[in-house]
Amino acid sequence: MNVLITGGTGFIGSALTKSLVQQGHQVTVLSRNPHTIARRCGPGVKELDSLKRIQPDDRYQVVVNLAGAPIFDALWTEKRKKLIRDSRIALTEQLIDSMSRLTVKPELFINGSAVGYYGDQGDTVLTEDSPALTDFSHRLCADWEAAAKKAESFGVRVCLIRTGLVIAAGGGLLQRMLLPFRLGLGGRLGSGKQWMSWIHRQDWIDIVHFMIANGAMAGPYNATAPNPVTNDEFTRTLARCLNRPALLPVPALLLNRLPGGMSQLLLGSQRVMPERLLAEGYRFQYPDLTSALNEALSR
Question: What is the percent of the chain with per-residue pLDDT over 70, rounded to a whole number?
């Protein structure tokens, strides 16, 4: 099977690429820096430096769209927020245009999204059918999903994968948290009552394989473990796994001073359940936070 991945050199994409190659698939990765693909994704991966190079007679059975500027890497100035949107929505629109010109269309299009789609909803349990509250994160995800769904107009099955906090060694938000926690300087954010919906990266990869294998799957899916935790519980669990105290909470007043509404990423609450995945019969390798953190920290 031929698979095209955008964002394939990233924290999630590189691991997915390696997994697909190990299963015997031919993978092409789109990257603005194609010289980094072999180092990050392993040998045997085809390089693509521009969507303009896709030809009508190219064939991809599956397209996975993970491209997008990192959410946490810089403060949310208006310029940064525009970059975050354009790197997802504009590129997705370009990708859809490239797919529309293929003589043989892909069978499946898996598009990245996030649990930020739902907005800050406190203790409310959220499923794929839950109504959303409007904020920057919701508009970003909703517009991203709307762009991706245009592939349905030419017969492509579309799965929207709403991802929570991804846990694995070597990257993501966990990597940013490790140094202060290892020094005993970690602590909850604000009150710590906000819910954090998370997933181990291996489960995320397995969900993609699950979507490829199950031709009836379509629409939005919450890629989150079935046991979300509060920030306070996440903090205490991480500290316990590291055998360190967690004594230094970060006041909400300080976080609220971050520009552009960025504090919603840290203080916003999404208590998300993977209702549709569970109904489809997917079984999580890492359903609880302790096992997920221990696996990541062991590496």
Answer: 100
User: 3-class SS at 218?
Assistant: coil
Q: Which residue has the tokens 């790197």?
A: 87
**How are strands ordered across the β-sheet holding 26-30?**
46-48, 26-30, 2-6, 62-65, 108-114, 157-163, 219-223
Q: Is 87 helix (H, G, I), strand (E, B) or coil?
A: helix
CATH class of 2-297: alpha beta
Instruction: Measure the CA–CA gap between 53 and 205, rounded to whole angstroms.
Output: 27
Give tens-digit pLDDT for 210-256: 999 999 999 999 999 999 999 999 999 999 999 999 989 999 988 88
pTM of the model: 0.95
Among candidate residues 85, 68, 58, 69, the one with its CA nearest the CA of residue 4: 58
If residue 167 lies in a helix (H) or strand (E), which one and from where to where? strand 165-167
| Start-to-end C-alpha separation, the chain | 31
Query: Which residue type sits at 11?
Result: F
Query: Tens of pLDDT along 257-276?
Result: 888 778 888 899 999 999 99
Of 99, 233, 249, give the one whose Cα is nearest residue 180. Answer: 249
Cα dist from 289 to 91, 165, 179, 209, 277, whole Å: 34, 11, 19, 22, 18
Angle between the N-to-C axes of helices 289-297 and 231-242, in degrees from 0 to 180, rounded to the nearest 10: 40
Range 128-151 average pLDDT: 96
The residue ranges of every structural domain in the chain are 2-297
**Buried-exposed string 8-30: b where 16+ CB fall within 10 A, e elsewhere:** bbbbbbbbbbbbbbeeebebbbb
**CA separation for the pair 2, 97 (Å, rounded):** 19
Beta strands in 22-119 (DSSP E): 26-30, 46-48, 62-65, 108-114
